Structures are given as structure tokens and as C-alpha cells.
TrEMBL record:
Domain Aminotransferase class V, first and last residues per copy: 7-354
Keyword Amino-acid biosynthesis applies: yes
Subunit structure of this chain's protein: Homodimer.
PANTHER family, A to Z: PHOSPHOSERINE AMINOTRANSFERASE (PTHR43247:SF1)
Enzyme Commission number, as recorded: 2.6.1.52
Binding sites annotated in the UniProt record for pyridoxal 5'-phosphate: A77, T78, W104, T156, D176, Q199, N241, T242
GO molecular function per UniProt: O-phospho-L-serine:2-oxoglutarate aminotransferase activity; pyridoxal phosphate binding
Location within or outside the cell: Cytoplasm
Name listed for the protein in its UniProt record: Phosphoserine aminotransferase
Summary of the function given for this chain in its UniProt record: Catalyzes the reversible conversion of 3-phosphohydroxypyruvate to phosphoserine and of 3-hydroxy-2-oxo-4-phosphonooxybutanoate to phosphohydroxythreonine.
Family to which the UniProt record says this protein belongs: Belongs to the class-V pyridoxal-phosphate-dependent aminotransferase family. SerC subfamily.
Cofactors, names only: pyridoxal 5'-phosphate
Keywords: Amino-acid biosynthesis, Aminotransferase, Cytoplasm, Pyridoxal phosphate, Pyridoxine biosynthesis, Serine biosynthesis, Transferase
Length: 366
């Protein structure tokens, strides 16, 4: 195991070793082109073909109908927190509904309030013990007149993940899938807009994928700067201005890997479940040492968040983990504790190694 293989960082996350090797080579010279990926024009035919291929692979993985467009944008998931209400809330006269289930969904709400009325349908913080659990379907009173429902499928910081799709069919459903996109299959037709930045399951930071129902673009409010208007990016085939060429190249390699080496989203899901089961298993085996953060029914298969009895024990755990070769295990600065992020690029073998380390620590770490 090298350091990359044992990188449990919350994001940017670890990428598959074959993709790192291809990228290393592409920085020298892209095979068949002979130029470094860092110095290839975004106006070249080669790059246009790369965009086409990337979109084709994504469509194949998601079984995406043609009634949806795929866009590669910049500004991270955070820019989507503004672009979405600009498109769907501004001037609509309707109220947008938001689920506040953790650190990231909380961040998505203030930019929406700038564009119109927002109703927080569920506030996980009000449950009293931090964002540990997600609402069940009967706890949500979704209005049929809402402009849309926005939620985050996997809360990266707290490690809670929806295992069902909330909301009401007939109301537009918008989902931030930044930290679990392509980790499992989903039916795209139950969504109107799905977005995910690359730096968890897809590649490096710099590019954000948006899957949008084309019909949403029929009525765009006036006064949106062109760069924030999805139609401009659609017309320009995601080359509206200079895109992050290298980030998109890496995403294209990851999609290829997912299709050809993993075999698509079903086998990826099966693998991710085994990884998560291994880690939650060791946590549950040692309740005197480890305490999982999330309510068991809402446990994330991407971010396994847990605590030890004292800050000193946590510091000791992190120190020992670091010297055993693991990195990125420190919890998010807003929550503390430990977080093992097990995105698509993390191998089962590496997770098994962490499980073994945690078993040993529980037995001998006193
Ligand atoms: N949404 C989620 C679920 C995230 O995990 C993050 C960042 N980790 C963001 C949004 C913000 O993404 P960005 O830094 O790309 O703007």
C-alpha cells in the first residue's frame, strides 16, 4: 500500500491507481496527441471529442434519456446553490422547499433566500443532537405547489445518507449528489436537476457535473448573467469559456474505469456496501471504544463518521493511524471526531486494512 491507497480524505478524495497512472502519463504527453494535458487547447478537436466521450460514458452509466442535458461547469457545488434558485425560484411566485440535514444543505439555503421564498421543511439541527438522522417520508409535508424540493443525498460532514428518495412526484426534485454521485444507481427520471462536483467520486476539483431536465430551460427568468445561465453552457457544449481541461480529462478516465473495470453502477454499489459494512462492523463490535455518529438507518456508505470517548483518545487514534500509513481520517473541522471517507476510488483491500487497524486499536489501544 502506498500513501495514496490509504487516503481516506473527505475531499478531494482518493482516485483509482490506474487513473493516477494515466494522468501522470498525460501530464507528459496524452497518448496519440503527444502534448501535455496541461497545454492542450480547449478549442481543439481532440478536446471536443473528449467532452463528447465523457458525456456519452456518463449517459451510459446513468441510462440517461435524451430529455436530460449534461453540463460540465465550474464554481463547484457551491455555485449551484445560487444558479438553481436563480433558474427555478426567481420570479416564480412559488416557495422553494429545502431539507436542512447537515452542514452542506445548511449552506445551500441562504443563497436561495436571495431569490425568493424558502421553506425549510425539515431542520435536522432542531432534533437536538446535531445532524444525526434524516427525516422519514411521513415527517415531510411537501407542498404540491412548491417551486422545487432541494436536498443533499449524502451529507459529507456528518455521514448521513438518504436511502430513499424524499419529496413528492409532480414537484421538481433537485439534488446535490456531490459526495455520492455514481456510487450507486438511481433513476434519473425522478429528478429534475442533479449536480455533483468532481472531487469525491469523479476526479479532481475544478469541474461540476449537472444533469438537468431540458424542459426546465424553456422558461428562464430575465436578468441572469450569461455565465450563470445553463442555456449558455448547453449551447456552447460546456465550452462557454476556458474549462478545466485537465480535470475533465481525469473525469473521463474515471468514467471509463467505472464502466470497464468496475462494470457500472450496480457492481460499484455492491463494492461500496461491502466497504461500509466492514467499517460499521468494527465500530459496532467495540461500542466501548467507537461510537458511530449517524443514526444506523441513515448511515452513509461514503463517509463513516465516528467518535472515541475522549479528545485524547481521538488524537491518539489519529496519531497511530498516521504512523500506520493512513491519512485523511480527521473529522471535518465543524464536527471533530473521525471520518473515514470511502469514495469509489478507495479499494476494498484498503478498507479491510483500516478495519484491521481499528480492531487492533480497540484491543490494544488502552
Ligand atoms: N455539497 C456537498 C455535499 C459537499 O460535500 C461539498 C464540499 N465538500 C459542497 C457541496 C461544496 O462543494 P464545492 O467546494 O465544490 O463548492
Amino acid at each position: 500500500f502506498d500513501r495514496n491507497a490509504l487516503n481516506f480524505s473527505g475531499g478531494p478524495g482518493a482516485l483509482p491507481a490506474v487513473v493516477l497512472a494515466e494522468t501522470r502519463q498525460a501530464i507528459q504527453a496524452v497518448p496519440g496527441v503527444g502534448l501535455s494535458i496541461l497545454g492542450i487547447s480547449h478549442r481543439s478537436d481532440w478536446f471536443a471529442e473528449l467532452i463528447t466521450q465523457t458525456e456519452r460514458d456518463l449517459r451510459a452509466l446513468l441510462k440517461l434519456p435524451d430529455s436530460y442535458a449534461v453540463l460540465l461547469l465550474q464554481g463547484g457545488a457551491t455555485l449551484q446553490f445560487s444558479m438553481i434558485p436563480m433558474l427555478l425560484l426567481r420570479g416564480s411566485g412559488c416557495t422553494a422547499e429545502y431539507l436542512r440535514t447537515g452542514y452542506w444543505s445548511a449552506k445551500s439555503i441562504p443563497p436561495a433566500r436571495l431569490e425568493g421564498e424558502v421553506r425549510v421543511l425539515w431542520d435536522g439541527e432542531r432534533q437536538g443532537d446535531g445532524f444525526r438522522r434524516l427525516p422519514t417520508a411521513d415527517e415531510l409535508e411537501c407542498s404540491s405547489a412548491a417551486a422545487y424540493l432541494h436536498y443533499v443525498s449524502n451529507e459529507t460532514v456528518e455521514g448521513v445518507q438518504f436511502q430513499t428518495i424524499p419529496g413528492r412526484d409532480g414537484v421538481k426534485r433537485v439534488c446535490d449528489m456531490s459526495s455520492d454521485f455514481l456510487s450507486r444507481p438511481f433513476d434519473p427520471e425522478r429528478f429534475d436537476l442533479v449536480y455533483a462536483h468532481a472531487q469525491k467520486n469523479l476526479g479532481p476539483a475544478g469541474v461540476t457535473l449537472v444533469v438537468i431536465r431540458r424542459a426546465l430551460l424553456d422558461q428562464v427568468p430575465a436578468g441572469i448573467p450569461e455565465i450563470l445561465d445553463y442555456r449558455a453552457h448547453l449551447q456552447a457544449r460546456s465550452i462557454y469559456n476556458t474549462p478545466p481541461v485537465m480535470a475533465i480529462y481525469v473525469v473521463s478516465r474515471v468514467l471509463r474505469w467505472l464502466r470497464e473495470e468496475i462494470g457500472g453502477l450496480e457492481p460499484m454499489d455492491a463494492l461500496n456496501r461491502r466497504k461500509a459494512d466492514g467499517l460499521y462492523g468494527v465500530i459496532d463490535r467495540h461500542p466501548d471504544v467507537y461510537a458511530g455518529w449517524a443514526n444506523p438507518a441513515d448511515r452513509s456508505r461514503m463517509n463513516v463518521v465516528f467518535r472515541l470517548p475522549t479528545p485524547e483518545r481521538e488524537a491518539d487514534f489519529l496519531r497511530r493511524a498516521e504512523s500506520a500509513g493512513f491519512s485523511g481520517l480527521k473529522g471535518h473541522r465543524s464536527l471533530g471526531g473521525i471520518r473515514a471517507s470511502i469514495y469509489n476510488g478507495m479499494t476494498l483491500a484498503a478498507v479491510e486494512r483500516l478495519v484491521e487497524f481499528m480492531d487492533d486499536f480497540a484491543h490494544n489501544g488502552h
